[in-house]
Specification:
Layout: E1 13-15, E2 22-24, E3 28-31, H1 36-41, E4 53-56, E5 61-62, E6 66-67, E7 76-78, E8 80-86, E9 102-109, E10 112-113, H2 114-123, H3 128-131, E11 137-138, E12 143-144, H4 145-148, E13 155-160, E14 163-169, H5 177-187, E15 195-197, E16 205-207, E17 212-217, E18 221-227
Parallel strand pairs: 3-15, 5-11, 6-18
Antiparallel strand pairs: 1-2, 3-4, 7-10, 7-16, 8-9, 8-15, 9-12, 13-14, 13-17, 17-18
Length: 228
């Protein structure tokens, strides 16, 4: 048994629907501007350009149902997303076999300190301060491929205090799930425990303390997260 000089960090583990066992998280990849309408609202060309990714930290994922409003910001935005959980990986994975590596799917939110992200963009600096802060990725239980298949269409919506804010369909993803997995595997060695957040439809906007966000994906149910 290996001795460590400090206590080992806890393993980040996510709930799996219908199981007492949990899914351990290794890495979190997030694709940017993967719905055309969202690309437009963010001031970018919606044409299919090469995908780009940024990362959150594994311990940014949070299944508590609460989102603590973070410090040093006055403009926190919701971004409703479908997350993809991998059971295996590798490098240079062909698109045709990419779905063989998927364990399941979960509802998630890519919460963003938009004001800080904007400052970093203007300065040509990395976005982590706007994206990878504590508990910035609320996530629901994982639904296994055996239970829900590999959804490639279906409504994705987000309501804030009952008001519809975001609405799209998984068939509007510019880069589909198999393509994301294949592309990432050209640049990184993917592995079991990796999570890919697949992008958000248009309608992103701010939340404040006391707001209640409800994300729904057809076939996966819904998840409610309170801003506290």
């Amino acid at each position: 048994m290996t001795d460590f000089v400090i206590d080992t960090p806890p393993v980040v583990a996510l709930e799996v629907a219908g199981s007492d066992a949990k899914f351990p998280v290794r890495r979190v990849y997030c694709i940017g501007r993967n719905y055309a309408a969202h690309a437009i609202e963010m001031g970018h060309d919606p044409d299919r350009e090469a995908p780009f990714f940024f990362q959150k930290n594994p311990n940014n994922l949070d299944g508590s149902g609460n989102f603590p409003y973070p410090p040093h910001t006055s403009d926190v935005h919701h971004e409703a997303e479908l997350s993809v959980m991998l059971k295996s990986g590798g490098t240079n994975i062909p698109v045709e076999s990419a779905l063989d590596h998927v364990y399941g799917y979960a509802l998630s939110l890519d919460m963003t300190r938009r004001d800080l992200q904007g400052e970093m963009k203007k300065a040509g600096r990395p976005w982590e301060i706007g994206k990878a802060f504590e508990r910035s990725a609320p996530v629901g239980p994982i639904h296994t491929v055996e239970a829900v298949g590999n959804p490639d269409e279906g409504a994705i919506t987000l309501k804030v205090n009952g008001e519809l804010r975001q609405e799209g369909d998984l068939n509007q993803l510019i880069w589909k799930v198999p393509e994301m997995i294949s592309y990432l595997s050209e640049y990184f060695e993917l592995a079991a425990g990796d999570v890919i957040m697949s992008g958000t439809p248009s309608g992103v906007g701010p939340v404040v303390k006391g707001d209640e966000m409800e994300i729904s994906v057809e076939g996966l149910g819904s998840m409610t997260v309170k801003v506290v």
